[in-house]
Amino acid sequence: MAVQTLTSTVFDNLPLKQVHTGNITIQGSFNRGATTNTLSDVIFLAKIPHGALIEDIRVDHIAPDATALGIKYGLATGAATGGGASWSCFTAALAKGSVARKSVQSTAVRVSVSDSDPNRYGIFAATLSTGTTTGSYTINFAVIYRCDE
Hints:
Layout: E1 5-7, H1 9-13, E2 23-32, E3 42-49, E4 53-62, E5 69-80, E6 84-94, E7 99-101, E8 109-110, E9 121-131, E10 137-146
Parallel strand pairs: 1-3
Antiparallel strand pairs: 2-10, 3-9, 4-7, 4-8, 4-10, 5-6, 5-9
C-alpha cells in the first residue's frame, strides 16, 4: 500500500489563529477507522503560524487492534529556518497508550517558514513510525503556542 498524507478536521476546518498577546490552544482528535495503514503515513494535525513559539504540546494515541504502534510527532514544515521539516522534534516513536508533553523538554521550538512559502504556517504532524499498521487508531492532541515575542 502506498504512503498516504491524511488531514485532521482541525487542520482542514480551523482558520490559522494568531493573536498579539497570550497563549493560543488548538486541540482535537484524529480517528482512523479500521483500515490498513502504511508505516510512514503522515497525518497533518494543526497549522501553527510563522514566528510562533510552541510552549507545549500534549499528544497520545490509542490503537486497540494493534499490539504496538509507534508514532513520531513533529513539524512537517516550519521546524527550521527556511521551512525545513523535523518529523520527530517532539517524539521519535511514542508508544501507544503513552502521553507526551513538550513542556518537559528544555528547548523551545520556534516555527519558521520560508519567505517564499505562500501559506506562512508550520504544520504540526504525526507519522506512523513503528509497529503494526492494521486496525484503527485515534490520536488526541493539543498544541499551545504564542505569537507575542
